[in-house]
Amino acid sequence: MNLKDIEATEALLSSPQKIVIVPHKNPDGDAIGSTMGLYHYLKNRGQDATVISPNDYPKFLKWIPGNEHIVNFEKDSNHAKQLIAEATIIFTLDFNHLGRIDQMQPYLQEAKATFIMIDHHQAPGDYADIMYSDVSMSSTCEMVYNFIEFLGHRDQINADIANCLYTGIMTDTGSFKFLSTTSRTHRVAADLIDKGANNTLIHNKVFDTNTPSRLHLLGCALKNMVIMEDYHTAFITLSQEELDSNNYKKGDTEGFVNYGLTLDGICFAVIFIENKEDGIIKISFRSEGDFSVNEFAKKHFQGGGHTNAAGGKSDMPLEETTAYFVSLLENYKEQLNA
Q: Residue limits of the DHHA1 domain (predicted)?
């Protein structure tokens, strides 16, 4: 974040504002952690701030401090629309294209507010008046920590802020194992613990609150795993019928795609999840090393993200989608065997 943008942001926040903070649709730990961390910081500065989520999010994130104040656009759209229309500042966190907020998009496009983007994904859009974009960062939560520090208020990070930001850093770094995890990331995490983040509790709340149905669904996913050794690739499929028969709840498939990368010799892992309500196959891509799933998802599956973690979708049926995916692998055999 350059000095001009820091000064412009501080000037805006030096007077009372009506602020809306927005994560992407289907928010994950980094999206909820960063928006709520920023929410607590702004509230502590006396600002009128509200987080509006495009839709619901997993139960394992609903312990987050201040969770009860999040407005769900799908469930309370009239209130959310009024807040957006009245906002003087809108922060968009953990996404960089308004298409990532689905049905909220037209209301943000009509908004008269000043837009501030904080995000670490590639190829940002140009809708924001103030943009803090850095693809090298581990998480948007680490960026919110930096944002608060840029404004000279690192000493104002309290336990609520620390717990929120630690959550997103932990989840978006794969518990500090991804390549985006730097020594700075660890120093930030350490400072958050010093400021009150309960790292043991956070890990337990996020990873150790499984239901029997989720573990049964995981067993189904692992049974469906296809390993393609010639391409150092593993992929999982889950049909709508399999989701329904295992009492699927939002967030239950979180992290399933990563199991493929635990196999020796696998550097490319994918999960295909059927969503009949939306009429799509939702896809998550993960990789190790230099193979860019961001480019792969962008070119073939209407998606994108990071070099080693991306998402996409397909409008074809599940079997056709996986067949198409398999047909693509020969074109990438050299890269996957590098």
A: 246-319
